[in-house]
Amino acid sequence: MKRLENKVAIITGAASGFGAVDAKLFAKEGAKIVLTDINEENLKQVAEQIIQDGGIAIYATLNVTSPYDWQKVVEKTTTEFGGIDILVNNAGIASYSSFMESDYDTFKKIMDVNLNSQYLGIKAVAPAMM
Ligand SMILES: NC(=O)c1ccc[n+]([C@@H]2O[C@H](COP(=O)([O-])OP(=O)(O)OC[C@H]3O[C@@H](n4cnc5c(N)ncnc54)[C@H](O)[C@@H]3O)[C@@H](O)[C@H]2O)c1
Q: Which of 17, 33, 89, 101 has minimal CB crowding within 10 Å?
Protein backbone atom coordinates (compact mmCIF):
# COMPACT_ATOMS: atom_id res chain seq x y z
CA MET A 1 0.00 0.00 0.00
CA LYS A 2 1.24 3.49 -0.86
CA ARG A 3 1.93 5.82 2.07
CA LEU A 4 -0.72 8.43 1.15
CA GLU A 5 -3.40 6.17 -0.33
CA ASN A 6 -6.87 7.78 0.04
CA LYS A 7 -5.43 11.01 1.45
CA VAL A 8 -6.40 14.40 0.03
CA ALA A 9 -3.65 17.04 0.01
CA ILE A 10 -3.82 20.77 -0.73
CA ILE A 11 -0.42 22.18 -1.71
CA THR A 12 0.21 25.92 -2.04
CA GLY A 13 2.87 27.33 -4.35
CA ALA A 14 2.56 24.12 -6.37
CA ALA A 15 3.24 25.67 -9.78
CA SER A 16 7.02 25.47 -9.36
CA GLY A 17 9.95 24.61 -7.11
CA PHE A 18 9.43 22.63 -3.92
CA GLY A 19 5.62 22.78 -4.21
CA ALA A 20 5.59 21.10 -7.63
CA VAL A 21 8.06 18.46 -6.43
CA ASP A 22 5.95 17.80 -3.31
CA ALA A 23 2.84 17.44 -5.47
CA LYS A 24 4.47 14.86 -7.76
CA LEU A 25 5.88 12.91 -4.82
CA PHE A 26 2.56 12.92 -2.93
CA ALA A 27 0.73 11.77 -6.09
CA LYS A 28 3.20 8.89 -6.50
CA GLU A 29 2.41 7.92 -2.91
CA GLY A 30 -1.30 7.73 -3.78
CA ALA A 31 -2.64 11.09 -2.55
CA LYS A 32 -5.29 13.04 -4.42
CA ILE A 33 -3.72 16.44 -5.00
CA VAL A 34 -5.19 19.93 -5.13
CA LEU A 35 -2.46 22.07 -6.66
CA THR A 36 -2.79 25.77 -5.89
CA ASP A 37 -0.79 28.85 -6.86
CA ILE A 38 -1.19 32.34 -8.35
CA ASN A 39 0.49 31.09 -11.57
CA GLU A 40 -2.35 29.30 -13.35
CA GLU A 41 -0.43 28.43 -16.50
CA ASN A 42 2.31 26.54 -14.64
CA LEU A 43 -0.25 24.96 -12.29
CA LYS A 44 -2.08 23.46 -15.25
CA GLN A 45 1.17 22.00 -16.63
CA VAL A 46 2.12 20.39 -13.30
CA ALA A 47 -1.41 18.94 -12.92
CA GLU A 48 -1.31 17.52 -16.46
CA GLN A 49 2.08 15.93 -15.78
CA ILE A 50 0.79 14.26 -12.61
CA ILE A 51 -2.28 12.92 -14.41
CA GLN A 52 -0.13 11.64 -17.32
CA ASP A 53 2.00 9.79 -14.78
CA GLY A 54 -1.11 8.06 -13.40
CA GLY A 55 -1.80 10.36 -10.44
CA ILE A 56 -4.95 12.16 -9.39
CA ALA A 57 -4.79 15.96 -9.40
CA ILE A 58 -6.90 19.07 -9.85
CA TYR A 59 -5.79 22.69 -9.62
CA ALA A 60 -7.19 25.99 -8.41
CA THR A 61 -5.76 29.50 -8.41
CA LEU A 62 -5.16 30.64 -4.84
CA ASN A 63 -3.47 33.75 -3.55
CA VAL A 64 -2.53 32.59 -0.06
CA THR A 65 -3.12 36.11 1.33
CA SER A 66 -6.82 36.01 0.31
CA PRO A 67 -9.37 34.53 2.77
CA TYR A 68 -11.88 34.44 -0.12
CA ASP A 69 -9.53 32.32 -2.29
CA TRP A 70 -8.96 29.94 0.64
CA GLN A 71 -12.71 29.45 1.09
CA LYS A 72 -13.11 28.70 -2.63
CA VAL A 73 -10.31 26.11 -2.53
CA VAL A 74 -11.81 24.39 0.51
CA GLU A 75 -15.21 24.25 -1.23
CA LYS A 76 -13.67 22.88 -4.44
CA THR A 77 -11.62 20.28 -2.57
CA THR A 78 -14.48 18.97 -0.45
CA THR A 79 -16.82 18.91 -3.47
CA GLU A 80 -14.33 17.03 -5.68
CA PHE A 81 -12.63 14.78 -3.14
CA GLY A 82 -14.98 14.67 -0.13
CA GLY A 83 -12.56 16.00 2.52
CA ILE A 84 -9.08 17.31 3.32
CA ASP A 85 -6.30 15.40 5.12
CA ILE A 86 -3.12 17.34 4.41
CA LEU A 87 -2.22 21.01 3.93
CA VAL A 88 1.26 21.91 2.67
CA ASN A 89 1.68 25.65 3.29
CA ASN A 90 4.62 25.95 0.92
CA ALA A 91 4.02 29.17 -1.07
CA GLY A 92 6.56 31.82 -0.26
CA ILE A 93 8.55 34.75 -1.57
CA ALA A 94 11.93 36.24 -0.71
CA SER A 95 13.77 39.50 -1.10
CA TYR A 96 17.51 39.49 -1.54
CA SER A 97 18.21 43.15 -0.83
CA SER A 98 20.23 44.00 2.26
CA PHE A 99 18.49 45.27 5.37
CA MET A 100 19.65 48.84 4.71
CA GLU A 101 18.30 48.73 1.15
CA SER A 102 15.02 47.09 2.16
CA ASP A 103 11.70 48.92 2.37
CA TYR A 104 8.76 48.43 4.70
CA ASP A 105 6.19 47.66 1.95
CA THR A 106 8.30 44.73 0.74
CA PHE A 107 8.78 43.53 4.31
CA LYS A 108 5.02 43.62 4.91
CA LYS A 109 4.33 41.75 1.67
CA ILE A 110 6.78 39.01 2.66
CA MET A 111 5.14 38.73 6.07
CA ASP A 112 1.72 38.48 4.43
CA VAL A 113 2.71 35.76 1.95
CA ASN A 114 5.09 33.77 4.17
CA LEU A 115 3.60 34.16 7.63
CA ASN A 116 0.05 35.56 7.81
CA SER A 117 -1.05 33.17 5.05
CA GLN A 118 -0.29 30.26 7.41
CA TYR A 119 -2.98 31.53 9.76
CA LEU A 120 -5.48 32.01 6.90
CA GLY A 121 -4.80 28.58 5.41
CA ILE A 122 -5.05 26.63 8.63
CA LYS A 123 -8.14 28.60 9.69
CA ALA A 124 -9.87 27.81 6.37
CA VAL A 125 -8.87 24.14 6.16
CA ALA A 126 -9.11 22.99 9.79
CA PRO A 127 -12.94 22.67 9.96
CA ALA A 128 -12.94 20.27 6.98
CA MET A 129 -10.06 18.29 8.51
CA MET A 130 -11.82 17.97 11.86
N1 LIG B 1 14.63 27.38 -2.51
C2 LIG B 1 15.22 27.48 -1.32
O3 LIG B 1 16.44 27.39 -1.19
C4 LIG B 1 14.41 27.70 -0.06
C5 LIG B 1 15.05 27.69 1.17
C6 LIG B 1 14.29 27.85 2.34
C7 LIG B 1 12.92 28.02 2.25
N8 LIG B 1 12.32 28.05 1.02
C9 LIG B 1 10.88 28.24 1.00
O10 LIG B 1 10.26 27.15 0.35
C11 LIG B 1 9.11 27.59 -0.34
C12 LIG B 1 9.18 27.24 -1.82
O13 LIG B 1 10.36 27.78 -2.36
P14 LIG B 1 10.80 27.54 -3.86
O15 LIG B 1 12.27 27.68 -3.92
O16 LIG B 1 10.17 26.28 -4.37
O17 LIG B 1 10.16 28.85 -4.54
P18 LIG B 1 9.50 29.07 -5.98
O19 LIG B 1 9.58 30.54 -6.22
O20 LIG B 1 10.05 28.14 -7.01
O21 LIG B 1 7.98 28.66 -5.73
C22 LIG B 1 7.14 29.41 -4.94
C23 LIG B 1 5.76 29.36 -5.55
O24 LIG B 1 4.91 30.15 -4.72
C25 LIG B 1 4.05 30.87 -5.58
N26 LIG B 1 3.54 32.06 -4.89
C27 LIG B 1 4.18 33.24 -4.64
N28 LIG B 1 3.38 34.10 -4.03
C29 LIG B 1 2.18 33.46 -3.87
C30 LIG B 1 0.93 33.83 -3.30
N31 LIG B 1 0.73 35.05 -2.78
N32 LIG B 1 -0.07 32.92 -3.29
C33 LIG B 1 0.11 31.69 -3.83
N34 LIG B 1 1.26 31.28 -4.40
C35 LIG B 1 2.29 32.16 -4.42
C36 LIG B 1 4.87 31.22 -6.80
O37 LIG B 1 4.04 31.51 -7.91
C38 LIG B 1 5.69 29.95 -6.97
O39 LIG B 1 5.06 29.03 -7.84
C40 LIG B 1 9.02 29.09 -0.12
O41 LIG B 1 8.15 29.33 0.98
C42 LIG B 1 10.44 29.47 0.22
O43 LIG B 1 10.52 30.64 1.00
C44 LIG B 1 13.02 27.90 -0.13
A: 101
